[in-house]
Amino acid sequence: MRSCRGGYGDNGSNNSENRIGENEILSTPVTPFIDKPSPAATKEIALILMDSFAFYHGRFLAHRAKVLYGITIVPVFSNYMKGFFQMQQPPDMDHLMSMCMPSEEEKEAWLKPLEGFELLAVLCESDSGLADAERLESLLNTTFQNGFNEARRNKYMMIEKIREAGIPVVKQKLCCSVEEAQEAARELGIEEYKKGKSTPLEQLTSTFVVVKPVRGVGSEDVSLCQSIASVEKAFHQIYGGTVFGSPREKHQSALVQEFAEGQEFAIDVVSKNGEHKVAAVWKYDKRPANGASFVYFATELYNGPEVAEISDYLRRCLDALQISWGITHSEIIMTARGPRLVEVNCRQHNMDFLPLTMECIGYNVFDMLLTAYLGDKDPDIFPLGPAAERLDWELLPLNPSVRMCGAMIHLACFANGTLTHVNEDALKEIQNMDSVVDLEVYPAFLHVGNEIQPTTDIKTDAGWAQLIHPDPDQFQKDYDRIIELMPCIFEAKT
Questions:
Q1: Which residue ranges have biased composition labelled Gly residues (predicted)?
Q2: Nearest to 99 by CA among 36, 46, 31
Q3: What burial class does residue 47 get, using C-beta atoms within 10 Å of its C-beta: 0-12 exposed, 13-18 middle, 19+ buried?
Q4: What is the radius of gyration, based on Cα positions, of the chain?
Q5: Largest CA distance in the chain
Q6: DSSP 8-state secondary structure symbol assigned to residue 105
Q7: Which of 44, 315, 333, 373 is within CB 3.0–4.6 Å of 260 for a Cys-Cys bond?
Q8: What's the Cα-to-Cα distance from 177 to each of 65, 181, 240, rounded to whole Å?
C-alpha cells in the first residue's frame, strides 16, 4: 500500500484566462531545457511538455517519446506556475524560472538552441496551463496545433459554441447576479419550496438545475439545486471566489444549467488531423455525500451499448470546438433524449489510468498520441530496437474493446475533525481482495492527530484503489464491498 501521492464571461472569468500581469513577473532569462535521448532519432524533433509533474502523465509521455521514438523533450512551465514560483520562493527559484515559457520578446533567444529542430506540439498536463499551451503553440508555430480558442475552457462559451453547430446541448444562462440566477432557475422549472406543501415523493421528482463556475475541475463548486433557496446559496458560493488557475481573478458570474439526468461517462480521445479515435470510455459513479451533490466514488472502464452513440456525439463536439490534434478528456451524460455534453478538457484524464487501460484494453492514450504525431514519418529515422512497441494509427479502432473489468475507486472520507483512528483491518481487507492491484491512502489520512475533512469533490478524497479482474461477478463483489467499507475507514473527533 502506497502512502504518498504521485506528481504534483462576459465569459465569467474577466476574459483574461490564466494570465499574470507582465509587470508582475520578475525578469528572469528563460532558456529551453533540452532533454535529448540516446539513442536519438536521426532527425531532430522536439516535443514541448508544459507543467509535467506526474510520473503517470507527462513524465510517462516523455519517457515513451524518448525510448520509442528517440525524440527530444523540452519541459516548460506555464505563466500560472511562474506566478506560483514567485509566491513560494523555492530554493531552486532561478532554475525553475528559467524553464518558464518564453514571451513574444523572448521567443527569438529561446529558440536559438533549438535551431534545426522540428517543434511538434505543446502538450499541457495541468488545467491551469491549457490557455498558455495554446498561446505557446501559436508563438512557436509548432507542426501540430489547434489555434487559440477560449471556448475550450470556458464552460458557458463551450456549450454555446456546440449549440451553434446544431448539436443538442443543455439549456443554460450565465448569471451576474443572484436575481438573474433565481430567474434562470425559475425558467428551467424550479419553484419556490413551501415547507409542508410537498410530499417527500414530490420533492424527489421535482425539477433540478445545476449551478457551476465557468472555470473549474472535479465537480468543485458544482451544486445540484431543487429550490430557489439552494440556487441562491450555490450562486454565493461561486460569486466573488477565486477563478480556477487565476489566483488574481474573481468570479463575476455563475452558470445555471438544465440538469441532464442520466449516466455520466468520461471519454478519452486522441485526434489526428481531425480523425478522433477513442482511447477509453469510463463510467462515473458519483453520489451525494457529505452535503455535496456529486462526489466521485469510482471511475470504471465501460464497454456497453451506449459507447458508439456517445463517441459519435463527442466527435461532433470536438469538430465544433475546432480540435484536430492532441488529447482530450470529455464528460457526457446519456439522457433519455440522447447524449448531452458536460465539458471537453484539452488534456489527459487526471488519474493514474495507465495500469487499467494497458491491462484491460492493451494500449494507452499517450502511445496513441505519439503515433498520431510521428507515425507518418519515415520509420528509419527512429531507433530500431523499440519499433515493435510503437502503435500503428491505422490499426487502432475508432472505439476500443475492453477485455477485462477495471476501475479506480476513489476513497471518500466521511469523518471530520482530528483523526483518531484508521481502520487498518478494513484497509487490509481491501488490499487482499482478488480484484485490487494497487491501493493508496494519502498521508494526511494515515497519521492520527491530523486534521481531516469529509470528501466533497475529487480534490478532497482520501486515496484510491485500482481494480482489475476478468470475472465481472468477482469484480463487482469487491467494488461494492470497498464502497461499503468507506464510512468506517476513518474516525475523527471535533
A1: 1-10
A2: 31
A3: buried
A4: 23
A5: 77
A6: T
A7: 333
A8: 48, 6, 11
CA nearest to 265, candidates 345, 340, 331? 331
Give the Cβ contact number of residue 490 at 10 Å: 24
> Where do we find the cell 514560483?
85
Residue 450, C-alpha cell as written in the block: 491530523
Cα separation values, 441 from 154, 272, 324, 465, Å: 33, 37, 38, 9
Instruction: Let me know the angle formed at the C-alpha of 394 by 392 and 398, rounded to the nearest 5 degrees.
Output: 110
- Main-chain phi, psi angles of 145, to 5 degrees: -160, 165
d(CA 201, CA 386): 61
Domains along the sequence of the chain with CATH: 28-148 (no CATH), 171-258 (3.30.1490.20), 263-395 (3.30.470.20), 405-493 (3.90.1170.30)
Residue type at position 174? L
The three cell numbers locating residue 440: 493508496
Sheet containing 45-50: order of strands = 72-76, 45-50, 118-124
Q: What 8-state DSSP symbol labels residue 169?
A: -
Q: Are 97 and 85 in contact (CB under 8 A)?
A: yes
Strand pairing class (45-50; 72-76): parallel
CB atoms within 10 A of CB 295: 22
CA dist., res. 31 & res. 37, Å (int): 19
Residue 481 carries which side chain, given as an amino acid letter?
A: R
Dihedral angle, C-alpha 172, 247, 132, 281, nearest 10 °: -50
Q: How do the pLDDT tens digits run along the chain, 494 residues long?
A: 443 333 323 444 444 444 434 444 456 799 999 999 999 999 999 999 999 999 999 999 999 999 999 999 999 999 999 999 998 999 999 999 999 999 999 999 999 999 999 999 999 999 999 999 999 999 999 999 999 999 999 999 999 999 999 999 999 999 999 999 999 999 999 876 555 555 444 544 368 999 999 887 766 788 999 999 999 999 999 988 877 767 678 888 999 999 999 999 999 999 999 999 999 999 999 999 999 888 999 999 999 999 999 999 999 999 999 999 999 999 999 999 999 999 999 999 999 999 999 999 999 999 999 999 999 999 999 999 889 999 999 999 999 999 999 999 999 999 999 999 999 999 999 999 999 999 999 999 999 999 999 999 888 999 999 999 999 999 999 999 999 999 999 999 99
The pTM (predicted TM-score) of the whole model is: 0.90
Please choose, from the candidates 259, 263, 242, the residue with its C-alpha nearest in 3D space to the C-alpha of residue 184.
259
**Cα–Cα distance for residue pair 449/489, rounded to 1 Å:** 15
Any idea what DSSP says for residue 69?
Answer: H
